[in-house]
Amino acid sequence: MSQLKGWLQKGLFKGRHQALKYTAAMIFMVAACVATMGTLAFTSMISTGQYEVTGLDVKQDGTGLEVNWEDADADGYEVFLQTNGERPKIYRAQEPHCRIELDVLDLEYRVTVTAVNRIGGLSAATSDNVTTQKLEQTVETEKDKYVGLEDKKGPLEAEAHGDITYTSSDPSVVAVSRKGVMSYKKDGHAEVTIQVAEGDQYKAAEKTVAVTVYPDTLDTPQMKVGDKTDTTVTLRWDPVEYAKGYTLRRYDPAKKKYRDLMEFTGDTISVEMPRDQAKYKLKATATVGEDQIESEPSEAVKVKATAASAESYGGSHNLMTLDGSNMEVVAHISGSGGASVPQSMSHVGNNYVVTYVDHGGSTGALVTYSNQGERLDTTGISGMGHANGSTYNPNTKRVYTVKTHRQIRSAECSAYDPETGSREKVFQLPKVTSGIAYDWTNNKYCLSKGNEIYVCDDEFNVEKFIWKRIRYNHAQDIGAYNGVAMVCTWVAGNTSYIDLYRISDGAYLGSYNVPIGEIESCFVDDKHLVILMNNGTGGMGDCILRTVDPIAIP
What we know:
Layout: H1 2-9, H2 18-50, E1 57-61, E2 64-68, E3 76-82, E4 89-93, E5 97-101, E6 108-116, E7 121-126, E8 130-131, E9 145-149, E10 153-155, E11 164-168, E12 174-176, E13 181-184, E14 188-196, E15 205-214, E16 223-228, E17 232-237, E18 245-252, E19 257-265, E20 270-274, E21 278-288, E22 291-294, E23 301-303, E24 318-321, E25 327-332, E26 341-348, E27 351-357, E28 363-370, E29 375-382, E30 387-393, E31 398-404, E32 409-416, E33 423-428, E34 435-439, E35 444-449, E36 452-456, E37 462-467, E38 474-481, E39 484-492, E40 495-502, E41 508-514, E42 518-525, E43 528-536, E44 541-547
Parallel strand pairs: 9-15, 24-41
Antiparallel strand pairs: 1-2, 2-5, 3-4, 3-6, 6-7, 6-8, 10-13, 11-14, 12-13, 14-15, 16-17, 17-20, 18-19, 18-21, 21-22, 21-23, 25-44, 26-27, 27-28, 28-29, 30-31, 31-32, 32-33, 34-35, 35-36, 36-37, 38-39, 39-40, 40-41, 42-43, 43-44
């Protein structure tokens, strides 16, 4: 360049050399441009290779496209989406992946990815055409079967992608609004079909749900006396439409009204009851959402007591006589304060808990003795009353008592903490009960009164009824062990019995004769029979007795 300048200054190209001067200058400038462009092209080639986009992969995922490629170590990327020759949409990404949500499916899309630095796009990769498919869908509802009560409404609230329409198979039973609100017109059965139209992203779908509309009252059941034996009677009834259950009611002469006795499922149409003098009514029930509906009670059904000739099943069978020859005194016992009359006994761990009552039957106490006869604790309980029967449940660690006396008649059971004496819960029993026992071997409660034994679950729901008329005398309490119920009966004076019944079939197994006073309670402790005596004879007084040898419960 400096030499060319010198030539110009010396006038080398003046005059006739003027044209040559301009020609040479132009040649020189063109050569310089070519050299510069070559250098830039070389630099661009190096940069383009450095930021090359490779490994482009495009797949449909749900309602969009998942776009992935190899990391080109660029400053960023531009993703171009094009369909049907339309102008591309541009998406920007910093990492080598991008998700593109699509408004319309069932179309072909092409994706191009360009690596970008500060100068601009350097290289690009273009995918093959990607054909998208509309998605399958299902109609979601809270239930497949709905129930309603006539003259009321309830929501259906279907969920789906697209416009929803509802159609009832019988609008006279159930009508459905555009928003999915069902109007229950009258009792009956219908189906509601839910249809979803095809949209830009999802295919059409359909679902049918069943709807049952209940009347606001159920038909009155018709109950009648069925099969009879010497000691039992079967009550039968025809099923009531829409009934989910039935409640059997028994007349209580003491309160001169009917009280709920048992509940059955809707598929039950009979129940076996004892042949004692009683009147029964039946009502049908159903639960519809948050509404409880029922029928009017049936006409009263009267059951006559069994004949006197059928009392004893061939008479009682003495398995063993329990007296001072085969029983030993564990402890001579006494109550607490005015509550000094022993009524029942529970086996609490290795200890015995005795319930006491005063002579008026209003104040009670719990007194604990060890199985060696040591008095451990006394807990006075105000309001416990005449706890004629008691038992202990090791699962709940609570003593359960029932109070029944000539002056006190109650169909409830109270749960007490044996350590504090505090009453924690009250259970309603199926009827007035004098005895209670928990059989830990099968997690069942047995309740007794007279000749009746009820087998219940741990919430005192009746599962089985046993009734045998062995003797007419006063049933004090009941014990239970290994599926056998043991009813403690005091006849008079010093004559008492323990009558044994097998829970599985109600069979009478025999009796233990206890001719030493008024027996109050019994249970089995390590295969030894333990009994509680009230004012026993022979100088023993109130005491806890235990068989010297283990006994075999039949």
